[in-house]
Amino acid sequence: MAARLEVRAGTAYPVEVGFGLDVGELAAAVLEPGECALLTDSTVGPLYAEKVRRSLRGVGWRLLETVEVPAGEGSKSLAVYGDVLRRLARAGLMRDGVLFALGGGVVGDLGGFVAASYMRGIPLVMLPTTLLAMVDSSVGGKAGLDLPEGKNLVGAFLQPRIVIAELGFLESLSGRELSRGLAEVVKMGLLAGGEFFGALERVGAALRREAAALEELVLRSVSFKAAVVAEDERERGRRAILNYGHTVGHGLEAASGYALAHGEAVAVGMVAEALLARRVLGSELVGLHERLLREARLPVRAPGLDAHRVLGAMGRDKKRRGGAHRFVLLEGVGRPVWGVEVGEEEARRAVEAVLG
Ligand SMILES: NC(=O)c1ccc[n+]([C@@H]2O[C@H](COP(=O)([O-])OP(=O)(O)OC[C@H]3O[C@@H](n4cnc5c(N)ncnc54)[C@H](O)[C@@H]3O)[C@@H](O)[C@H]2O)c1
Ligand SMILES: [Zn+2]
């Protein structure tokens, strides 16, 4: 079982999705096998790095170095970034050397920024190992790091040369991490409408790791994200719809001191934004959101957080412009509108409603 999609952003590149993929061979179809390095983290490395190394060597890739960074968001830092660059330099990786990023969104974002900047840019191959990375972060070319002052404040756009989503990697992923990835899947299904929205009924089966359900939801998510990105690579317009649930979500994440995980914050954020859409656009989607998110074992409320802090953090969000908050709202399933300005009072009510 395997399928290939194409992302038409920058130079078009393939996304391979399936079980039992041969990483070395698939990469060799788009890049001449030569010198390369493998970036991974301390959880994924021990599980899968050796398998990937074997596959790479099998078709003539010469692996100069494996760099394993500590698992977790903390590795999206200037300090770790600097260490990785120096390891590559000491290993003698040259301008034509390829970086393979094996891990979740953290390794992907860090690896993307390394590949964008090392020797002014080297080719990148994404090997996502979390559901979130497969459906979201590995596709679209956003790479970046956090600063102590805020998340994702440093970054670059670099499209990978190929994304290889080996669904077998998800076997070792915890149920919680799977749910967090499903938050982005539910988000995209609601934005897309049509058959993708219908396929959200397989969320429960995906959580039980049924192969066909996982494959369908990953393929639909990637193809939806790819289409949006191809239309608007630099987020000057429609790409903003991918931030659905994220305006409130980012506020919740920050106000919790990042105790609330991104996927969970986005889930609750979508409920808040569905409440907003009910007031501002008259759409009745709150119950639908709650049902889908519960099926994905995601929260629909974030009790205990302070509304004032959430709104404060939303105000500091880098995506905010001008005075009012701007939201992506759903007029209906498959009918997002973006850049909807909502006053402070209206936003506060929606936030308070999901904190209770
Ligand atoms: N670039 C983008 O467009 C984009 C989009 C969304 C999110 N992101 C970024 O992605 C990051 C979050 O990604 P994530 O949720 O994948 O987090 P992550 O990379 O931290 O992975 C979550 C945890 O799962 C572990 N793990 C990964 N794969 C595993 C596997 N197969 N088996 C067992 N354990 C495994 C990791 O070691 C980690 O501890 C954030 O930094 C976020 O900003 C980027
Ligand atoms: Zn997200």
From TrEMBL:
Keywords: Amino-acid biosynthesis, Aromatic amino acid biosynthesis, Cobalt, Cytoplasm, Lyase, Metal-binding, NAD, Nucleotide-binding, Zinc
GO biological process entries: amino acid biosynthetic process; aromatic amino acid family biosynthetic process; chorismate biosynthetic process
Reported cofactor(s): NAD(+); Co(2+); Zn(2+)
CDD domains assigned: DHQS (cd08195)
Gene3D superfamilies to which the protein is assigned, alphabetical: 3.40.50.1970, Dehydroquinate synthase-like - alpha domain
Annotated ranges, domain 3-dehydroquinate synthase C-terminal: 181-319
Cofactor descriptive note: Binds 1 divalent metal cation per subunit. Can use either Co(2+) or Zn(2+).
Residues reported to bind Zn(2+): 184, 246, 262
A molecular-function term among this protein's GO annotations: metal ion binding
Enzyme class, first EC level, given as a word: lyase
Functional description taken from the UniProt entry: Catalyzes the conversion of 3-deoxy-D-arabino-heptulosonate 7-phosphate (DAHP) to dehydroquinate (DHQ).
HAMAP family noted in UniProt: DHQ_synthase
Protein name per the record: 3-dehydroquinate synthase
Organism: Rubrobacter xylanophilus
This protein's encoding gene: aroB
